[in-house]
Amino acid sequence: YGLYDYLRNSIQQLELPQRKAALIVPAFETLHYRLTFPKSKAELLSMLDMGSLYTFRYHVWPKGHAPTDYAKWRTATVPYRVAWQPDFEPYVVVRRDCPKYDQRFVGFGWNKVSHIMELDAQEYELLVLPNAFMIHMPHAPSFDISKFRLSAGYRGCLQTLKEEFHQDLSRRYGAAALKYLTAERSL
């Protein structure tokens, strides 16, 4: 409730049109198909503490959202900056002129990860909003995630695309892009 207005106000207060910043909307999830949506951060925290909500994908892919620093978010009252980490894939609000999603990553796998890497390579600030949140509702697995899970060929193609993407980042950003390649190899 009120997310749209909060985002618009945050964009103005943080002078987003004049700076390179990605506003991170912390993501949560429920395992219930029906949910009374929390009307405030306090309600969300209560639901989180009671176990009816969870931080997004904490049980299957914690690296995707862990850099959001949910422990800090719980008590934050002002936006705070976080650093890029491998496999970070938050939901973000950015200016229209930001880098587009890489079209190689359609279907399942690496669309948000590659986008955040590109934003980081262009020195975007990654700012977590203290009073914004979204809740992912359960749904049947997509056709594309099923292909990813069942097809070694699909996973192999995705790996090839990741390698091409890293090469492209190296060409565009030089030595600054080495941290992405190093991070990938250490995983």
TrEMBL record:
Alphabetized UniProt keyword annotations: Glycoprotein, Glycosyltransferase, Membrane, Metal-binding, Signal-anchor, Transferase, Transmembrane, Transmembrane helix
One Gene Ontology biological process: protein O-linked glycosylation via mannose
Subcellular location: Membrane
Any single Gene Ontology cellular-component annotation: Golgi apparatus
Domain of life: Eukaryota
InterPro entries: Xyl/GlcA_transferase
Keyword Nucleus: no
Signal peptide: none
Membrane topology: Single-pass type II membrane protein
Gene Ontology terms for molecular function: glucuronosyltransferase activity; metal ion binding; xylosyltransferase activity
PANTHER family: GLYCOSYLTRANSFERASE-RELATED, XYLOSYL- AND GLUCURONYLTRANSFERASE LARGE2
Entry protein name: LARG2 glucuronyltransferase
Gene that produces this protein: Large2
